[in-house]
Design goal:
- This protein is of the alpha+beta class.
- The chain folds into 3 domains: 177 residues, GAF domain (Beta-Lactamase); 116 residues, Beta-Lactamase (2-Layer Sandwich); 71 residues, Winged helix-like DNA-binding domain superfamily/Winged helix DNA-binding domain (Arc Repressor Mutant, subunit A, Orthogonal Bundle), CATH 1.10.10.
- The protein is 45% helix and 21% strand.
- It has a 5-stranded antiparallel β-sheet with strand order 2-1-5-4-3, with helices on both faces. It has a 5-stranded antiparallel β-sheet with strand order 7-6-12-11-10, sandwiched between helices.
- Strand 6 and strand 7 form a beta hairpin.
């Protein structure tokens, strides 16, 4: 094969190696291309422990049938004469079969008679993808008895591929570990009784657990429109989106461990939803192409008792201390001027506080505020 053509084939294999990171089921295709590149009869990707002499074929090319795979895993792995000693198998080393055992001796073994000979294999080229103690991960190219033996040039070609196989395999394992952790965390979120919605900085929904699905399905206060979470009123939707945007960049009004609170009214006039927003992963500002921030929205059961404390209510609407104290007295049945007297402020100051409270809450009558506090179990 011309050198340029051989280089192109190796480059094609490298491209497919890294493509395995984004797609499932591509490792057999990698091995198929390696088989063609080396002019082999078969290629396997397998693991072995030199302590207990057990191992298995993790991936195989299309030329290795399932029955041969099972036979190797169950019975023949421990009798592989190429793996009697771990000494030659250093990380990223490449070995010819004849460097371990001459073919004349190999053909006298049970392994050859029971496994290699029925499949027509004899010549072997092997590379160490990774090693951890007595555990080794290997790739092996096999040729039939009538085919030419592997050469030093074949060894150099595999040496070129090994770092890419190692890097792709390590990255794949890391991605799988991250995926497993993420799936476990999402499974936990799905089991908690609190409604939980994960959204990005644009309020687009990334995940909802089962209680949140039921809450959104009722379309009473919180809804999922165009795959975005919205409130029943435009005013509350704007407040909700602003809170999400602040938290997504780690710039919430409250400390990150406390999050922010929004109270969402319900058209059915059932108790409002107390929605706590928590920054899960801040967005990296000014970094194009980087992942956006994630925000968790936790909704307390609106039918529960004492959904809100005065502190959480005040935090939800960004009330000042003076406004919060005034609201607290109103919640306990005081009139506006009576509350002003207890607070030691003038009637005009109390009226000013109320105007600010109306503006922040989006309510324009004192009776509506008292009704809202009653629904939240604060009166």
């Amino acid at each position: 094969m011309p050198v340029a053509q051989g280089e192109d084939r190796v480059d094609d294999v490298i491209k497919v190696i890294y493509a395995t990171l984004g797609q499932k089921g591509l490792w057999p295709r990698v091995l198929d291309q390696m088989c063609d590149t080396f002019g082999g009869a078969a290629v396997t990707r397998f693991e072995h422990n030199f302590g207990n002499r057990k191992g298995f074929i993790r991936y195989k090319c299309k030329h290795v049938d399932a029955s041969a795979n099972e036979a190797y895993d169950d019975k023949l792995c421990g009798r592989n004469p190429w793996l009697h000693s771990d000494l030659p198998y250093r990380p990223e080393s490449v070995l010819l079969g004849t460097e371990i055992l001459p073919n004349s001796d190999l053909m006298k073994t049970e392994f050859y008679e029971d496994f290699l000979r029925p499949l027509g294999f004899l010549h072997r080229l092997c590379g160490v993808v990774a090693r951890d103690g007595l555990d080794v991960e290997l790739v092996a190219v096999l040729r039939a008895k009538e085919m030419r033996p592997f050469t030093e040039q074949d060894k150099k070609t595999l040496e070129r591929l090994l770092p890419h196989l190692r890097q792709a395999w390590d990255l794949r394992k890391a991605l799988n570990a991250d995926r497993s952790e993420r799936e476990a965390l999402l499974a936990i979120l799905d089991r908690i009784p609190t409604a939980c919605i994960l959204v990005d900085s644009g309020a687009r929904i990334r995940f909802v657990n089962q209680p949140a699905e039921r809450l959104l399905a009722r379309r009473d206060g919180l809804m999922a429109g165009a795959n975005c979470v919205t409130a029943a009123t435009s005013h509350e939707s704007v407040r909700l989106r602003r809170m999400i945007a602040r938290l997504a960049v780690g710039a919430g009004a409250a400390p990150p461990d406390l999050g922010e609170i929004v109270i969402v009214s319900r058209p059915s006039e059932r108790p409002p939803i107390l929605l706590t927003g928590l920054c899960i992963r801040p967005r990296e500002a000014g970094r194009p192409g980087r992942a956006g921030g994630l925000v968790a929205l936790l909704a307390k059961d609106p039918e529960g008792e004492n959904l809100a404390s005065l502190d959480s209510f005040s935090a939800a609407y960004h009330l000042t201390q003076a406004e919060s104290r005034l609201i607290g007295l109103l919640a306990h049945g005081r009139g506006l001027f009576e509350a002003a007297s207890e607070l030691g402020v003038t009637k005009n100051t109390a009226r000013t506080h109320m105007r600010h409270i109306y503006s922040k809450i989006g309510i324009h009558r004192q009776t509506d505020i008292i009704r809202l506090l009653a629904k939240l179990g604060m009166s």
